[in-house]
Amino acid sequence: MIVEEITLQGWKSYREPRTFRFGDKVNLLVGPNEAGKSVLLEALQRALFDRHSGASEEIKAVQPLGTTIAPEITVIFRVNGQRYRIWKRFLKEPRAELSTERGGVFQVRDDGDDADRNVLEIAGGTFPGKGLTQSKHRGLAEALWYLQTEAAVPEKTWNEGVQRGLGGVVQIAARTPLEEEVIDRVTRVHNDVFTPTGRTKAGSELTLVREQTEHLAARVTAHRESRERIRESREAMERLETEVEEKTTLLVRAQTEARVASEAVEASGAVLEKKVRMEAELRSARERSENLKKVRSGVSARKEALESLAASLPEKERSQRDREAEAKVEQQVVERLRRQRKEEKEPELKRVEAELESLTGLERHHTLEKTIRGLEQYLSRLHAAEEELGSREKELEQSNSPTVAEWGEYQQLSTQLKVAEGKAQASSIRVGIELRKKTSRVTANPVPNRENGEYLIARPTTFDIDGVARVHVRGVGASLEELSAECDRLRAESAETLRHFGVMDADALAKAFASRQALESDVKSLRKKVKDLKNENPTAAKELKDSRRGLDDEAAKLGNIPVDAKSWGGERIRSRIGELKRTKKEMIQTIDKLDKQERGSTTRAEGLLREAADLEIQLKEALAKRDQQRMELEKVVQEYGSLTALDRAVTAAVDEVLRLGKTREGVEEEIAQKVTEPKERLTRAERAIKSLESRITEIRRELAGHESRVEEITRQGVYSAEGDAGGELGFLQRRLPILERRAAAVELLRAVLLDCQATRTRALTQPVRELVGPWLRSLTSSRYNNIDLDSDLLPTSVGMTDGTPIPLSLLSFGTHEQVIVLVRLAMGVLASRDEKQVVVLDDRLVNADSVRAGRFLGILEDVGEKCQILMTTCNDGLYAGLNAEIVRVPEGGKTGSE
Amino acid sequence: MVRFLHTSDWQMGMKAAQMGPKARAVRETRYDTISKISELARRQRVDFIVLAGDVFDDQDADDAVVRRVTDVLNGIDPIPVYVLPGNHDPMGPGSIWARASWRTRIGANVCLLDGPNEVCVNEEVALYPCPLRQKRTARDPTAWIPPRVPNDNRIRIGVAHGGLDVLGTSVNFPIPANRPELSGLDYLALGDWHGLRIQGRCFYPGTPEPTAFDEHDPGNVLIAEVSEASATPSVRPERVGILQWHAEDPQVSDQSDVGALERRLKSLGPSSSLVLRLHPRLNTAARDVQETLAGLRLELEQTTFFLDWPEESLQAPTVLETSLPLGLIAEADAVLESKNDGSSAAPSPEVVSEARTILRQFVREAQG
């Protein structure tokens, strides 16, 4: 089909008839936005595929805005060399006529519904059940027309008309229902087991069995480990039992050994008794020998002590006598010192102290007199100041001079008067009187001041001009009079004030005020002076009284001082007092020294006397001791007959000890043989028994431990549990490979089916791929190499040069759009093998950049050689240089057709 | 004259792991069986019972099992029970016999034959027990039994656990078949072999309850009578087993094979006591045969005590399936077939075969 001409009337913006004519190759419908390009293509669809009787809202929307005009369209097209004209009017008196051309003239062939049906048949479309035609009803034109509002590709598949239109050149890889069902079933079974990414699905039987298998295997392992522990325990027990047997044998042997040794030890009792006896004898011989030795050494010691005591007695007597003599000498020294102190030094001290006391009293007397004099002077000064203050205060009281306030009032009054006079002067009126007659006299009452020949009238004045006239001058209103009166009043008040203070003028009053000020200042300073004096010594009167009394007391004491001292000056008295104080101090020190010496001598004398007494006692004791020791010695010697006899007894006892010692050594040897050796054997055997028994007990404990471990584990029932888990595991382990094989088989089957399907699709879509491939390479500078279509002839991906497929959904919007246009162009080319077809592209390359748009021109021109292209654009700049019919689409149909 | 019940290989506490979820039920059944033995002993008024080894399946058997068994043995009182440790439950440290659950609970009527010493049942009967102390050995456990001395007119009964050396191959605990003659025994009460077997004066009662599919004539105990020393024992097997274990891999080519299988199974006894392992080999793609077989499987699944019959065995081999419709499916099948090229990257032949089977199954189901 080739579209030659479209005429619209009453169609949206085309109110008036507009006709558009198209060439057989590329037609570029150019016009700005809203110019009506898409309206033209939509109208073409209505004319070819829709019933003229349709009255849906979409059809009504075609009417020019605000009119009820019946939209009309006429399309002239060519199919198989035959020209047709279809005319349709919608809504108002709807009509349709299909005409064929005979001898250059169109003759109506069908009208009404027949026209609708037949034109639809020629266009290869199908009527929609309801509403207006959609892309899927356009037959081949679904693929070849790419209108503005339509999706890039249909949701599922192209309509049958597309395949028919492609005339077997390209086939949709139709599957039989059986194939569909099998593939569907395989896919479902596959999806039950696998996730889209090919992993085993959680919750699938395969996964569950795998998980359970792992879980059970872990349980079985745990049970086996428990049983392994039993086995280990059992082995350990066997070892321990063997050891117990061995140890028991050893124990029996050790017990026998102990018994034999014990019997030997028992049999050695007599030897031991002998030893005990020997030991006792030896012990008593040693005791006897020691006692005798002790007695002998005691005798020697006493003798020595006695001799030493006797030798010390004369010395002791001499010492005692010496001490007594020394004591007497010391007592004489004491006596001498006491006399010196009592008779010489202490009376002298008393005398010095008496003189010191008198002189000190005299000094105090002098001091008091001086104090009294100072106080009297002070009080006299105070009295004089108070008297002066009294006189000044009286003078001030009697003064008629103005106070500060009165002076202030007077000054204020003077100021007011000056102000009032100023105002009166300002308000005064100048009156000039020119007399015609020189003789005429002017009088005024009161007489005003004159200035430059004029009268300054400051108060109501009456002029009498020579009796000719009497002129009364006064201010307007009462001001002049009031000001004049005010001045008078203030002057009177001022004069009254001066009179009151008895002065003549203001200067006199100022002087009076100044003199009062001076007087007040004197009073103030005197008051301060009095106050200061009083503060200087507030208790002066009392002090004076006390001092006078003190002076009387001191005077009473002055009788004790030397007569000439009374005439001494203060300096001399103080010097004498210092001298006396020093003398007193020295005397006290001397007395103290004497006292100390006296006490020291006393102490020494007493010590010497005590020593002498002690020595006397010691002497007496030594004598007593000597006598006693002499007696004791004699007693001991007498006990043994003589000292020689004692010495002999000592020697005999020592010999006896030596003899018994040798005998004992023999017994010791006997004991070593008959007692010690069996005892050691017994100890060794007992130690072995103990160790063996301890080990056996330990082993039994270990055995008990193992036994309880075995009991514990068997109590848990691990044997059956292992069986149960193992049984289940066995089942699952048999089931698992079956499931795994089945899953692998389903996966394989699905892959093979999809692969077969893809192979078939590739074969069927080969013509489209062959056409699009080179276009795509040229358009994208070989970034993309080819295109893949699915079994429904829908593009799925583009292949990169390295073969990587890129799904269309991942392409940019512009590239995606361009790929779709290429697919549709390819289908257009393939469908035009027998009969040239029209490809409609409604502004679909709007997103192409200038480079791509440029490359598209060549493709469009190539395609235009094989089929007609109706293509709209609002930007013909992109297509500059395109070998195409340019069809201008004016806005609002204002210009006519081209 | 003495009359006694000879049994062995109770294998109490047996795991029965191959029964999977039914293992517990199998274990429980064994308690019913030994209760039956207890009742039989009373009914038969035997003088004593000889339990010739393997009372327990393992020396690790659960304590609960030991307790229940002692309860049954105690319940036999006053009939004496002579229990011999076998290779599954040998004597020794950590053995079942040392456990508190045995030692402290076992009754006075039960005598553990724990040493190779003569045990006098009474003045007329002497037992010569050969208890085992290990699980495996090549030594004859009966070697210790002394020969009969002159004027010993007692009935001498050997009690041992092991294999008779009559198989020509080495056996565990080998016992010479002429032990009775060698040691002057009137009766050699044996355990270890699970099937009933009598050889001269050597007697195996076998396990009273089957433990495996390959056992020959299990499920019995022996009632033995010996009139006097040297007299031939009179021995009668008594059936006590409850479950029937049966396994076969029948070839199924047509409906008659299915029918024959069904009849064979019926002849084994009531379904509820059957423990079945069936792995049929299907030699036909005939739908009706497959369906009948599937029906039989379903029925057995619902009625038998236990059934091990994999569902996969109901599938006919791929090669026997009818041809596939031309087009995509046939192409896919051809591709699958070509995958069996033996290359390393190729999927395993089992997976390929399974994939082709699934394809056929789905096609068949889609075709209705």
Describe this structure in words.
The complex is a heterodimer of chains A (898) and B (368). By secondary structure, chain A is α+β, with helices and mostly antiparallel strands. Among the domains of chain A are: 201 residues, Helix Hairpins (Orthogonal Bundle), CATH 1.10.287; 98 residues. Chain A has 18 helices and 20 strands. Chain A has a 6-stranded antiparallel sheet. Chain A has a 5-stranded parallel sheet with strand order 8-18-19-3-20, sandwiched between helices. The radius of gyration of chain A is 81 Å and the shape is flat. Chain B is an alpha/beta fold and 368 residues long. In chain B, strand 13 and strand 14 form a beta hairpin. Chain B folds into 3 domains: 238 residues, Purple Acid Phosphatase, chain A, domain 2; 70 residues, no CATH class; 50 residues. The N and C termini of chain B lie far apart (76 Å). Chain B is elongated and about 95 Å long. The chains are: A alpha+beta (898), B alpha/beta (368). Chains A and B meet through helix 6, helix 7, helix 14 and helix 15 of A and helix 1, helix 2, helix 7 and helix 8 of B.
